[in-house]
Every structure is written in C-alpha cells, then in structure tokens.
C-alpha cells in the first residue's frame, strides 16, 4: 500500500491514539456503585438503552482515536509508488535541481540574446512550472569553476536568485566538481524522500567542458568520438560522479541551449609575451600577440597592443581555420620593474577572450661586487677576474640602443675591503669572490648576513687559495657556514700536453647552465679543457650542477641555499691558469652572464595570475587609503593595516578577482600595483558535443529535445506521490464527526 514515510519517526505519534481509550477506561472506574431503593427504576430504564449507549460511546471513542492516529500518520508524510492502488489519492510534489552552466563560453551572442541569457530564461520557465503551495522545492546550482547553490528552498526564492544573474563568469565549468555537488545534494534529498529528484542541466554543450583534460577534444564523430582514448581519460572524474548518480537511480537531463552551429565562429587572444626573455631596460623587444581562430573559416583580424597604456600601431593578421597566427609589435622598456601589456582584437560574438593583459617584469642591471684575490694591472689573463670582468662590460656596438644597455653594474674590491663598514654590501645583488687566499672573520660575518638577506655569493679558488684556510673561515659541517662543500686538495693533471678533464654531465634545465643544453652550444661547455680543480665533499643539501669526467666524477659547480640567498662554488679557477674556459669568449660570456644572473636572481612578484587567485599587493612606500579597481572600473576601498616588509609595505591578500583583465590597487600617494588576471584560453573554443554523442557518454546523461517535454516533469515511471493531504483530511473529518456526534448525543440524552 505505502512505499514508505518521509518522516518515519513521527509515525510513532500514532500511539497517542491510546490516550482517549485510557481516559475512557479511567472514567469507568471513577465512582463505586451504591444501591438504594429508587435505583431499581433507573436500572430498569438503563437496561433497556444499555446496548445502544455502548455502541454510541464506542463510536465516539473510535472517532477520537482515529483522528489522533490519522493526524500523526499525516505528519509522517507517507508516499506511494506508481503501481500502488492508492496512486489516485497521491499528491505529486516536485523536487527539482536546476544546474545552470555559467561558464565564459555561454557569453556567446547569436544576435541580441546571449546563450547565458537564454539559459536563465529557460530556468525561469522551469521554475514557473512549480507550485510552492503544493510543497514543490527547487535548488539552483550555478556551475562554473566553483559550483555553488544560489537558491535551495522555494520557487519564489529561485525566481529572485535568477533575477540577479546578468552575465556568466570568465571561467570554465568544472563538470567533475559540478556533478560532485549534484551527487551530494541527491544523496541527501533522495534518501527516504517522497519526491523523485529531477536534475536538469541547462548548458551550451561546449566540448571542452567534457574533454578539457585531454588537451585537445576528440572529433565529434558520434559514439566513436566518445570512445577515443583521450576522451576516456579526460572524463574519468565526472564519469565516476555519474556512476554514483546512476546507482541512486538518478538521471541528469541535459537541455541544449547553445548556438545552432556545431562549431560557432570565434577569435581570441591566447597569449601576449615577448619573443625573447627581456634582459633589462633600453633594449629593443618584440612582443608577440598570439591569436587563435576557433572557427572553421579563416579570418582576417586587426590586433592592437598597448604598453603601459600607450597604444602601438595596429597589426592585421590572417588566422587560419582552427589555427593560430601571431602579430609582432616592436617596442622597448625604458625602466626596470613592472610593465602592463594589453592586447585586444576587434569585438566578435564572444567578447571575454577578445582581450588579454599581462604584467611583464623587466629586470634591473645586476649589481656585482667583484672581490679580486690576485689583481694584475698589466696582464688581464693573469688577473684572477680580469677576463671575467671584461665579459661583464657593456656591449660596444654600432647600435646605440645596445651600447646603452648595461646588464651588469660592477664594482671591484680587494678582500680587505669586505670587512670595512664603509662598503655597504646591501648595494649589491651578487658578490663574486675569486682567487683569495682566505677571508677574515669580520668579512665572513658580513657576507653571511648579506646572503641571508637574499644576495648571491659566487666563490672560485685560484693560485693563492689555501683550502684549509677556506674551510676554517667558510665551512661548517652543520651547514651554518657559507661553503656548500668541504674543500680537500688541489687536483692537477700529470701533463697538460697529454691529458685534461672535461665536463661529463651538467644540469641542463638549471637557469645557470640551460644555455648550453642546446646541442649546437653544448660543446662550448663539454669540450673545454680543465687542468686543475679542488676536490670537495659536498654537504647533503648541496646540488652538484656540473661534474667532471675524472674517475670519481668530481663536482665542478655546486649550489646551496643560504637564508634567502644562494651560494655557488666553482671548484676550478676563473682565469686561464687552471682551464681554458676564460680563453673562449663564446663560452665565458654566456657562462659568466648566466651564472651571475642566476646567483642574483630574486623571483619578481607574480603579477599575472589565474582566475580566482589572490592578489598580493606590495608597495615601495606606505599605501594611504588603498583602493581596488576592477577591470570594469568598479572601485572598492581596502581595509586592514599595511605590513612593513623588506624594502616596502604589503597588504593582506585580496580575494575575489573573478574577472579576467587588468586589476589595480591604487593609493593616495600615487603609487599603483597592477595585476593581470588571465582567462582560460580553451574556453574560447566553442565546438559543441552533439546530442547523439552526449547519449553515448554515459547512461545517466539524458538529452532533452527542445520541441517536447517543455514542462520538464520527471518521467512517470517510478515516480512517487505523497498521501499526507488526504490523510489529514480524514483526520479533520474524524474530528468534525466526533464533535457533531457528541453534540447530537448530548442534546438527545438531555431531553430523554
């Protein structure tokens, strides 16, 4: 008869029906009968009407017990399935979960209305079909990068929530996370509930939502495309969620509200970056704007680029169908620090990817303190740092721009000056110590303090170097010293005419050596003869970046972090006495430049972020009244007190950067910090999944045609309806019948 109860605990309230019976029994024993003479006439009359009175009292008792039992049973809310004979008495309360695709791709406009606006309109239609007075419930789940419920009770609440949706997000729909939230809701609502949960996904069926992890979506070839291996791997997460929904006998009805074309046309900016790393200011640079054509027809498009707000001449590029093209913009940056690049295209039907911003960090010249242990004024080849210093000098060319570029600002000093307080080590990014015999304790203490603060230290022995003295001054077995290794002894070849050492291996991906990883440049490092080096025993946390080809594979270049900085040890010399590295300009220049640049490298603050990442503003001066400016121009005052950090002030992390584009934090002192929020480039590919392919992806996905089933009701088979209203009506009738019958009996017996 009944399939179950929505509130089974309340069914125990039916035991309250025993209360009228108990009262009746107690009333029968309230008085002890006492016989007296006149009672014989009363008893005679009572015997004549006794049976009728008992029947009337029993009927009243049953009405009262039935009313209480029916009321408790109605509160328990019984429900019945479609095959029950009580189906005609049931009331079909609907429980709907509307999932709204709010990904950036739904911003596509065919004419005036966007796909997202069509989705919201369709959601309103479905909510309008519900009746809150009947007990219908609706939940609205907004599905983008972080799915969230925006309404979870009545249809009126859902209507109000839908009225606030004006535009989609700038991110993709995370299908796996969305279905995980749907599964969680279904697990709660379908456990013992009287209504079958209707799950409806309103979407544009963008192929990337189903195959985003595959790198490239498989071809839309019906069921065969769904069986593609890449597709199978990319769909593993959301397939597991659908398996769980199918186990609960739930289905996701997918309503396609996207564009009619299988691959709607769209152009978008994929990236805006320099073609080569920017080494410093005053250098000519080419900035590349990469444009993608996600449509099936080639297109000519005009591309614009603004550098720090100054617009450069527009370029026109032909972008092939389903391909990319690049527009090149020559420019130069006059100052070090952050620079804002903003690329844009002519507007098309999907606007969110027609522009892209990037904050480029231009490094300042590296400030080098060169401590020369064997300075020789006459012959730079015998100088411990003579050839290296020559390699660090500014370029001298006919090009005035290149000649003005100074990658390194070098100051030389002798080992004794390191202990002099007048020499401010904070003025240098990297300290190069070469060929010294040893270092005094005050100099070592000052070096340790500066490296802990973030500077780089490069050490290289020479003819005057005494390994034992270096160990005593710079090495600690517990790692508290500057040396990354315990220096042993000098190792030399037996005859420089007959043998030499070479580099056997090196870390090809390390910033200091990656230049030599390319096959054409590799011999510049691996074929250099080395005649002498100092054998060392590295500390456990030291990294060997390059090793020689002697039998033990002795380290040639080591690195170890020290505080916020780093220490690099080159175990051979930087002059020609021990090797031929410095005699080859093609080797020495890239080796010295990249080594010192890496030693001094401090990671610049990240200013180009992904959607949803926190902004971390840092100012040079104290920021008074900081204000956050969104890409659309909206301004919001920021609370909290700025914290003083090294070389500046820092604000608390700012959350809520949910729009792609350029964000700024401004202060009253005129300083501003810019951040670029980059959109997901794959979201611009609007290729769609066909209905036939969708059906083949998973049995729990049920496509819904637009020309039928407009009501959006759940399938009749297996549906369940509640019986609480007819049961409550019976309880009311029992109470009314009891009152009328009791009044009738009282009137009749008083006149009898």
Topology (SSEs and partners):
Elements: E1 4-5, H1 18-28, H2 39-75, E2 78-81, E3 95-101, H3 115-128, E4 137-143, E5 148-151, H4 155-163, H5 175-189, E6 197-203, H6 207-211, H7 223-226, H8 229-234, H9 236-247, E7 252-256, E8 267-274, E9 284-293, E10 299-307, E11 310-311, E12 315-319, E13 324-332, E14 337-345, E15 355-362, E16 366-372, H10 386-391, H11 400-404, E17 408-413, E18 430-434, H12 441-452, E19 456-460, H13 467-474, E20 485-492, E21 503-506, H14 523-526, E22 532-538, E23 543-548, E24 555-562, E25 565-570, H15 585-600, E26 608-610, E27 618-619, E28 627-629, E29 635-637, E30 643-645, E31 648-650, E32 661-666, E33 672-678, H16 691-697, E34 701-704, E35 720-722, H17 724-751
Parallel strand pairs: 3-4, 3-6, 6-7, 7-34, 16-17, 16-18, 18-19, 19-25, 26-33
Antiparallel strand pairs: 1-2, 2-35, 4-5, 8-9, 9-13, 10-11, 10-12, 10-14, 14-15, 20-22, 21-23, 23-24, 24-25, 27-31, 28-29, 28-32, 30-31, 32-33
Helix pairs in contact: 2-17, 3-4, 5-9
